[in-house]
Amino acid sequence: MFKLPLSKPTPALIASGPRFGRILIILFATVLPALLMVPPVHIMSSQRAAGEAAVTAELVRRQIENMARSTLNTLEMAAALTNRPCSKIQSELQSIVTLRPYLRGLLLIQDHRVSCSVLHGSLDIPLSQYSLPDQFPDKPVVRPLIGSPLAPERPALGLTFSVGNGNGPLTSIDGQYIHD
């Protein structure tokens, strides 16, 4: 019987063989669409995330505006009580705070000093104790505070409503309402 001498195939022969070529074509055909889809998917997901962030930011802005508007309306009602003795308006102040959302405390300012508190009654302390300027502003102001009188460890949003000459009510929206 006649036998042909067999030699071991070399890597070059394997790589150029028909089987390797088919495998390479299949791998290329499988991976190429996935690689081509990465940039458009990334762009679309970035645009969607940016759109959702814009919608969320608008929702948060509107909610904070609604809280501030509601609170400023309450301050406008409390402003009518500003020049009266604290002992005579204490229960009226408590009912204002109790029946309004977002409020936990209310202070009345007279001559640029805190003169009355829903919680503590008559007081005489400087505005600076509440992270406010020493002069009570002559217009409604909304500003961030380090803490509120009820929760000094949590940030708050301070709101004032001036009735002129350093007089008016002051309150805060607890930062937890804004966070939620």
Quick take:
This protein is α+β, with helices and mostly antiparallel strands and 180 residues long. It contains four helices and six strands. Helix content is 47%, strand content 20%.
Structure overview:
The protein is α+β, with helices and mostly antiparallel strands. The protein contains 4 helices and 6 strands, in the order H-H-H-E-E-E-E-E-E-H. It has a 6-stranded antiparallel sheet with strand order 3-2-1-6-5-4.
Q: Given the C-alpha coordinates, what overall shape results?
A: rod-shaped
Question: How many alpha or pi helices?
Answer: 4
Elements, N to C (H/E): HHHEEEEEEH
- The overall pLDDT, averaged over residues, is 80
SSE class: alpha+beta
Give the radius of gyration: 35 Å
Q: Give the strand tally.
A: 6
Strand order across the biggest sheet?
3-2-1-6-5-4
Distance between the termini: 91 Å
Strand content: 15-25%
Instruction: Report low-confidence residues grouped into runs of 5 or more.
Output: none
Major pleated sheet = 6 strands, antiparallel
The helix content, as a percent range, equals: 40-55%
